[in-house]
Amino acid sequence: MQIQLTNAGLKRQGKWLVRGIDLTLQAGQILTLIGPNGAGKSSTVKMALGLEKLSEGTCTRDKNLRIGYVPQRLQLDWTMPMSVDRFMGLTPGVAAAEREQSLARVGLSAKGSHPIADLSGGEFQRMLIARAIARRPNVLVLDEPTQGIDVAGEAQIYELIQNVRDELSCGVLLISHDLHLVMAATDTVLCLNGHLCCHGSPSSVIENPEYQALFGSDAAGLAMYDHHHNHTHLPDGQIKHG
Amino acid sequence: MDDFILRALAAGLILTLMTGPLGCFMVWRRLSYFGDTLAHGALLGIALSLLVGLATQLSVFLVAAGIAATLTELERRRQLSSDALLGLMSHSTLALGVVAIALMGPNQINLESLLFGDLLLVNAGDLMLMGGTAIAVLGVLLVLWRPLIAATLNNELAAAEGLHPRASQFCLTLMIAAVIAVSIKLVGALLITAMLIIPAAVARGLSKSPEQMALFATAIGMLSVLVGISGSWFADTPTGPSVVLGALLLFLASQVYQAILQRRESQ
After folding, report:
1. Interface contact A74, partner B, CB < 8 A
2. Which of these, A104, A109, B197, B215, is most buried using a 10 Å CB contact count?
3. What does the alpha-carbon distance between residue A106 and residue A156 come to, in Å, rounded to a whole number?
4. Among B161, B163, B208, whose Cβ lies nearest the Cβ of A83?
5. Cβ contact (<8 Å) for A83 and B152?
6. What are the pLDDT digits (tens) for B50-98?
7. Beta-carbon neighbour count of residue A154 at 10 Å?
8. Domain A3-74+139-241: which topology?
9. From the candidates B154, B196, B202, B207, which should be mutated to test the interface with A, based on the most A CB atoms within 10 A?
10. Chain segment A34-50, per-residue pLDDT in tens
């Protein structure tokens, strides 16, 4: 057990953002939070990371967590001059080789010396993911990691997350809107809507009436749609055959 | 050349060692109004130092740190924007300071020298205090550089990575308060923010990394001090404002330089 929330709730200015969350993140497990906007997904992640103090319930975290975090809508102030390499190096204890390798994995190896202000939205997001995995975390937390990334790149990112989980056997806490991609890539799903609607394996959650009420019964068919390609999409959008 | 000019030069140069890097953080974190607020609070600090009999710099530092702590607490409550809170604190502490000084009776304090400073009145004791503060500030900056940069880029990311952004932010605030405390006599409450912001603004367009920007800002601050003090010597103008004008000249020159560079690139 790496992170455990028990009956956790977060209240701001008299309003509950989210309540009654039970969540256990195990090493080597991918746990995905889904739910409509305002369902409390990001609040749940922030409670789990200790960034927000719980208004009720408890949060226990293993003492030796090394967290790689990709926040939602990271706003950087462009008044600070900063290259991609320098930004990657801001995390303590990451070797240069590790940084270069992570950048290569998200298809950004040519961008190391570029100012981050010049990156596109998708490139910036991929850099954040590279930065999170470069520190070889034992917990990887990604809040909507594929925002701004094109459709071909999205599948690639989820594949990368799975590969990193396999290599580092880290726990992965993921927030996502890409139901069809994420259902194939996750071990456990937590469906939130201000409270915990349902949870379990992807196939059991899809059958759940509360899930179908939230996402429509179409989502059930869509979610398990699984197929194979004769080519792969590299993260930079290029296609590799065979 | 006279001693007082040399002392003024030394004081100005020591000051820019601190205002260079700290000013960069103020530009990055959009703290210029915050700096203004602390500087206005310095007036209240001076009034209090006379009432209680505390050393001026210590009193100014305590008031500035108190204002910073109050602001942090009020911001945490999220009822008013920090912009509105700063407006509230800035002008009420300024008013409180001016009223307190007036109540102490006539000729206790020269208000003009508090607002605009007098670089030429610096004595050896001031220089020692400034030198000590500069060494302390630069030492803390060296130790906290990485967490400060990380926290400036994104608080939550830094917190998740275990870099304790709150603690480093608190240290940054104390350092800004300390710089204002030791420099209030030299450049005055109205001009200290200019010394923090303008050199950093000049450096932004010229630098490719945060470290480079801090070094450039220091060098540009020093150049402004040299230009300003020699200008005030020859033209017999007030020293503090002359230094700020020196910095402004450098800012304008850097804008022209960048415009020429851009035009060349596009041709």
Report:
1. yes
2. B197
3. 9
4. B208
5. no
6. 888 888 889 999 999 999 888 888 877 777 888 888 899 999 998 998 8
7. 21
8. Rossmann fold (3.40.50)
9. B154
10. 888 888 999 999 999 98
In a domain, B45, yes or no: yes
Please give the structure tokens belonging to residue A178.
């890409």
Interface of B with A (CB under 8 A): 27-30, 78, 146, 149-150, 152-154, 156-157, 159-163, 204, 207-210, 212-213
Domain-located, residue B198: no
**Helical spans, DSSP H, in A71-194:** 84-88, 96-105, 121-134, 151-168, 179-185
Report how many domains make up chain B: 1
ipTM score assigned to the predicted complex: 0.76
CATH classification of the domain holding B7: 1.10.3470.10
Q: How many CB pairs under 8 A join A and B?
A: 66
| pLDDT for residue B4 | 83
Instruction: Please report, for chain A, the start and end positions of each structural domain, with discontinuous segments joined by +.
Output: 3-74+139-241
Sort strands A67-70 and A139-143 into parallel, antiparallel or unpaired.
Answer: parallel
Of the ranges A144-158, A224-238, B9-23, the best mean pLDDT one: B9-23
Domain residues for B150? 3-188
